[in-house]
């Protein structure tokens, strides 16, 4: 079984669903389209799905039914979802200088031997050894 090379951060999912920034929305659509053609190369973790739901519900005021539709669509695109573990949570909490959710995403990626994160927030991961980041919006 081929392990995915790249983990998708929440901001890609948010830009796909939210067209406030048209340029980023179109780029996120292209990214998800590419993922649908090569799902074995990409991964998503449960944390990103949870964060997506929270952001869309609280910050974007999207209805619950619409959020569920997006989540179901994301689950159709990705071959597997990668859960975080209690050990990932502990390691994330130990990184005091880093935002907890970013640290948890990085720990989940490392445990699953996924060494790239596709994210707009590349600077958030700069101090994580063994993880490289790519900003698709640049």
| CATH level-3 fold name | Rossmann fold
Number of domains: 1
Q: In CATH's first tier, which class applies?
A: Alpha Beta
The main pleated sheet reads as: 5 strands, parallel
The helix content is 40-55%
**Whole-number radius of gyration?**
14 Å
| Number of separate helices | 6
- In CATH, the architecture is 3-Layer(aba) Sandwich
Number of strands: 5
| Contiguous runs where pLDDT drops below 50 for at least 5 residues | none
The shape is: globular
Strand order of the largest sheet: 3-2-1-4-5
Q: What is the CATH homology-level superfamily?
A: 5'-nuclease
Distance between the termini: 32 Å
Range of strand content: 5-15%
The string of secondary-structure elements, in order, is EHHEHHEHHEE
Oligomer: single chain
Q: How confident is the prediction overall: mean pLDDT? A: 94
Describe the structure.
- This protein is of the alpha/beta class and 138 residues long.
- It has one domain (9-134): 3-Layer(aba) Sandwich (Rossmann fold), CATH 3.40.50.1010.
- 52% of the residues lie in helices and 11% in strands.
- It has six helices and five strands, in the order E-H-H-E-H-H-E-H-H-E-E.
- The protein has a five-stranded parallel beta sheet.
- It is globular.
- The chain starts with 5 loop residues before the first strand and ends with a strand.
């Amino acid at each position: 079984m081929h392990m995915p090379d790249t983990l998708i951060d929440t901001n890609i999912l948010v830009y796909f669903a939210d067209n406030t920034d048209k340029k980023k929305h179109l780029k996120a659509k292209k990214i998800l389209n590419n993922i649908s053609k090569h799902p074995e190369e990409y991964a998503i973790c449960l944390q990103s799905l949870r964060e997506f739901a929270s952001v869309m519900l609280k910050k974007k005021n999207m209805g619950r039914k619409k959020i569920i539709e997006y989540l179901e669509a994301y689950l159709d695109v990705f071959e597997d979802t990668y859960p975080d573990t209690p050990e990932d949570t502990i390691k994330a909490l130990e990184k005091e200088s880093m935002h907890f959710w970013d640290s948890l995403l990085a720990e989940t990626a490392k445990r699953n031997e996924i060494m790239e994160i596709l994210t707009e927030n590349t600077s958030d991961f700069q101090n994580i050894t063994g993880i490289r980041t790519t900003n698709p919006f640049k």
